[in-house]
UniProtKB/TrEMBL annotation:
Originating organism: Nothobranchius furzeri
Coiled-coil portions: 106-165
Entry keyword Coiled coil: yes
Annotated spans, Disordered: 64-83, 185-211
Xref: InterPro entries: RAB3IL/RAB3IP/Sec2 (IPR040351)
Protein name: RAB3A interacting protein
One MF term in the entry's GO annotations: guanyl-nucleotide exchange factor activity
Length: 386
């Protein structure tokens, strides 16, 4: 027994560093049992001599079973594999960074930046150019719209004036007076008080009626074939040139004589302004005049006509285009100028195609009426505004 105890104690010294385990439970360590309990023999057929050191476990026992893999640990292998992969990734990233930082890549990148910058600047310039062109087009369109609206207003005013002129001009002949039954003439009805003929005849005696002996005169008209043919040729292709036969006749017979003033140069300037539609005629107020310069003597004044040179009361003055010089004209000269202006206004409407509701004969009589006004004005007849 003493030898067995010595062997056990010797074996116990050699097992330092190992956990004390319960032999009854080989998978879990028995931490509740003391050392004396482990070394006490159990009753039964088990003999202490059979308890040898070779029967003790040489490795610590854990709560979970361990499996041998030829001396390798799976967790360590996985961690080593992951570490190897991370190292490869890091090396790849470092290689990529080194390549990106290489001079050739930096040069390519700088060139790309410069190219991108140039493209952006080019796109901005194109955008600014398009915006500027759009603004210019918009401004031009607005200006053209304003001009068109102004022209429309002027044309409407001219059409209205033409309608008034056409309605006011006597283009139709005077209506025939009704004749009395039996070939006699019926005396027109006279308003007002009339005395009894029987009483007056008894006192004054029988006298013949003056209206019964005087013939009745009515205004008649007839189309001149030559003048009408010239007008129809001009109407087919209206023009404002003096070379056509129709306007050449009107210039010779009516326009030149109507604008023949003592100041011939001023009369020629008036005709040129009327042809270009730049002559302005406006009334004059009777306000005191400023100091008259030497160059303004030819323009006349409120008491002197610039066309005739005579001392007349001038109620109107004329101006050429945008000039600041005014010429005072007498009522007689002003009527002659307006007669020519009315003729040019009407033929200008025909040239522009604004007169469409009348046939050729009606238009011819309207032109003839305007020529008649010029002829009457050049002879000295005029209408003055009171």
């Amino acid at each position: 027994m003493d030898e067995s105890a010595d062997a056990v104690s010797a074996n116990a010294e050699t097992l330092e560093g190992f956990h004390e385990v319960n032999l009854a439970s080989p998978t879990t360590p028995d931490l509740q049992v003391g050392d004396e309990d482990l070394l006490q023999p159990h009753p039964g057929p088990f003999s202490l001599e059979l308890f040898l050191c070779c029967s003790l476990p040489t490795q610590p026992v854990y709560s979970t079973p361990r499996h041998s893999h030829n001396g390798s640990v799976p967790g360590l292998e996985a961690e080593s594999a992951e570490g190897k992969e991370d190292g490869e990734v890091c090396s790849a990233l470092s290689d990529s960074l080194s390549r990106l930082r290489s001079p050739s890549v930096m040069e390519v990148r700088e060139k790309g930046y410069e190219r991108l910058k140039e493209e952006l600047m080019k796109a901005q310039k194109e955008a600014h150019k398009m915006v500027r062109e759009a603004n210019i087009k918009q401004a031009t369109a607005e200006k053209q719209l304003k001009e068109a609206l102004g022209k429309i207003d002027v044309l409407q005013a001219e059409v209205q004036a033409l309608k008034t002129l056409v309605l006011s001009s006597p283009t139709s002949p005077v209506a025939d007076l009704p004749s009395a039954v039996g070939g006699g003439v019926k005396t027109p009805f006279k308003k007002g008080h009339s005395r009894n003929k029987s009483t007056s005849s008894a006192i004054l005696g029988t006298q013949p009626d003056p209206s019964a002996t005087q013939p009745i005169v009515r205004e008649c008209r007839e189309v001149d074939s030559q003048l009408f043919s010239e007008f129809k040729v001009w109407k087919e292709e209206p023009t404002l040139e003096r070379s056509c036969s129709f306007l050449d006749r009107v210039y010779r017979e009516d326009i030149y004589p109507c604008l023949a003033f003592n100041k011939s140069e001023l009369g020629s300037a008036i005709l040129e302004a009327v042809e270009q539609n730049t002559l302005s005629v406006e009334p004059v107020g009777f306000q005191p005049l400023p100091v008259v310069k030497a160059s303004a003597v030819e323009c006349g004044g409120p008491k002197k006509c610039a066309l005739s040179g005579q001392t007349k009361t001038c109620k109107h003055r004329i101006k050429f285009g945008d000039s600041s010089s005014y010429y005072y004209v007498s009522p007689f000269c002003r009527y002659r100028i307006t007669a020519v202006c009315n003729f040019f206004t009407y033929i200008r409407y025909i040239h522009q195609g604004l007169v469409k509701q009348q046939d050729a004969e009606q238009m011819f009589w309207e032109v003839t009426q305007l020529r008649r006004e010029m002829s009457v004005a050049k002879l000295g007849y005029f209408k003055d505004q009171l």
